Amino acid sequence: MKRFLILISITLFVSCSTKHRDPTARTGTTNDSVLYYYTIAKDRNNPLTQRHNAVNKAFRFLKEDQKDTLYFPVLYQKSFIHFTAKEYDSLLVFNDLLIGQPSKNEDNDILARQHYLMAYYYDHIAYKPKKAFHHYNNSKNYKKRINDSSWIGKTLCNMAIIQKNHNDFFGSKETITEALHYLDAKKDSKYISSSYNVLATDHRKLLNYEEAIKYHLKAIATTESDRDRPLYQNNLAATYIDDHKYQEALTLLKEITKDSTLRRNKPEYARVLDNLAYAQWLTNKKVKEEAFLHPLDIRKKNRDRRGQIASYTHLGEYYIKRNPIKAKAYFDSVIQLSKTLNIPRAEKDALKHLMRLAPTNVALRDRYVFLQDSLYAQELKVKTQFAKYKYDDTLKQESILQLEKENAERALEVAKQRNQKIISYATLGLLVLASGFIGYFLMQRTRRIQQQNKIAVLEATYATEAALSRKLHDDFGGKLNHAMMLLQNGADSNEVLDIVEVLYNQSRNFSRKINDVDTGPHFKDLLFGMLGTYCKNTKLYVTGSKEVNWDKISGTSKKTLYKVFQELMTNMQKHSSATMVSIDFEQSKKALGVAYVDNGVGASKADIQNKNGLWNTEKRIVAINGSINFESEKGNGFKAHIKIPN
């Protein structure tokens, strides 16, 4: 924390001394005094107490003169000095004075720095990530007005870290990628390497280890900091462990332990030692308990409670088979610490291990399910909030630009006509035109979306009809023609009757397939009955169906789900040679999610695109505003992730 405070103090202070307006042509004793005290307050070589007194005197002179060009720079210095002195209540008061009247403050640089200062306060002091995200974003927007690319990139990097820390990994990837466009390779190498590290972590959490490793290596290659390099290397080793590349992890971790810089950073050194012991244990090497206890002792001495959670977790895993009682004690320590630090994900992971030790303990299972559901809901809420904030801010910035454009046009009209009446009419006309355009645009957009949905439905219908037609022609028609030929040639009646019986059964099954789906109270039985018919020689595992409230799902969504499963099961039966099919249901307030997995031969992306049935399935889902994603490779089975509205 101290390092962060020193860093932001130096960065903001030095930058401030060169960026804002520094009026020197002033007259009068009062103006000279303000400038004198303001200069003392800016000078970081002066003691903090002297700077504090100086900025207070400067502010007293300016208190009644908000139009003075130094009023807002003095307010910023006052906020900054209160922050440095840890006088956070005063910081909040003067922050409201500075950014509470943006119409009077036209200094974009001062406003950007004030918002950044408050973002840092909410991020690292008050621990209010949503407010920090808001202020970082405002700081970025003010710097955009003066084209300060480096500042914009650094601010976006901080926003991405907040999203990452709250498990919004897709949003974090998007933000950090935007940050890299603004950062300069020569001036901002520290932030570029940090950005690569964040991007690598995002990919790691999304289980995309190949990309994670690539960006970890980029972070290591671009950093010029001897302190940061072993941190990035340790992150890379952790990714190797997650990807089961234990030898690579061991080689790297052994190399890091020799780094003299790392040894001075006790919490990070303990993390390396703990990862090294864990990787050795995973490779079935004989590891003594001391290998885990030593980093735990370092973490306790440095009051690194988050690090202690990792140590206790690894010790619990270490003793699961050797000494279940000890393992339980370590996992209990994880739960206790996670509750103290309010880290429910760590508690959930510990409960997962404890359930292995006590599989009949209903209380553990219920707590695990509760945490899983609440974490999912919380993460979804946070992701939605960040996404909505960025979307709303984009609209706001577009609105500001539009307003600035209108003001410029209005000013030009004033200069040309010098007639207030004409200006009023022109402004009114612009507003009406803008409103009409927006209304027309929204109406056309709505019509276009509706038309696209109609087309999607028609295409899905046409594809289904074509498939049915081919099936009638190829299967049913061929056998019927064969029966007619046998009759004409005087064949044995039993032989003809056998073919007719096959045709009858085929027509009955065909009729069942194309008939409308019963979406009433018996839908669930109908659905699982259909699935069972495809799995006579295949094991079918279904989870989560008991928690689904089928009454909440619309009839259209039920029909679509039924047809989609028909296509997937048909594909499985005809092409995959699967021996096991797993279907997992998970229902949220707005949608039903389904994960389909089979262990068949799989298919390439080109093969999937060439399958009319699967293409038709995607059309059905899109037509009801749902989504379906296929994951498959030759020899690695077949997966489909489905989401349909309730």
UniProtKB/TrEMBL annotation:
What is the name of the protein in this document?
histidine kinase
According to its UniProt record, which reaction does this protein catalyse? Answer: ATP + protein L-histidine = ADP + protein N-phospho-L-histidine
User: Which InterPro entries does the protein's record reference?
Assistant: HATPase_C_sf (IPR036890), HATPase_dom (IPR003594), Sensor_HK_TwoCompSys (IPR050482), TPR-like_helical_dom_sf (IPR011990)
Q: Which SUPFAM superfamilies match?
A: ATPase domain of HSP90 chaperone/DNA topoisomerase II/histidine kinase, TPR-like
List keywords of the entry alphabetically: Kinase, Membrane, Transferase, Transmembrane, Transmembrane helix, Two-component regulatory system
Domain of life assignment: Bacteria
Q: Where does the record place a coiled coil?
A: none
- EC identifiers of the protein: 2.7.13.3
Q: Where do transmembrane segments lie in this chain?
A: 422-443
